[in-house]
Amino acid sequence: QVQLVESGGDLVQAGGSLRLSCAASGFIFSSIAMNWYRQAPGKQRELVATIGNRGTAFYTDSVKGRFTISRDNAKNTVYLQMNSLKPEDTAVYYCNFKTWIDYWGQGTQVTVSS
Predict the structure, then answer these.
(1) How are beta strands 11-13 and 108-113 bridged, if at all?
(2) For residue range 37-80, what is the model confidence (pLDDT) as tens digits?
């Protein structure tokens, strides 16, 4: 059974940092590209970052230079280090991977106060 469990969300002041984690199970984690998405209230879910199975990373423009995605294949975990947080980063953050369908975690709330 596939499971994605996010953690690490919190309330933080603007300029602060958080590290999100996503623990994966039920599939061959090391062979799959992993994604972080976010969804703010009233907005569509958007792709934040992707990491390939060999570590190649992609970031949406709004987080480049502030966020870093990484993975530990030995721990079946993907991370999102978020620095210099802004109020517009406030959202529920979801871990995801895609096969012929999308798999999602339950999400973790990040709130950045100004």
Answers:
(1) parallel
(2) 999 999 999 999 999 999 999 999 999 999 999 999 999 999 99
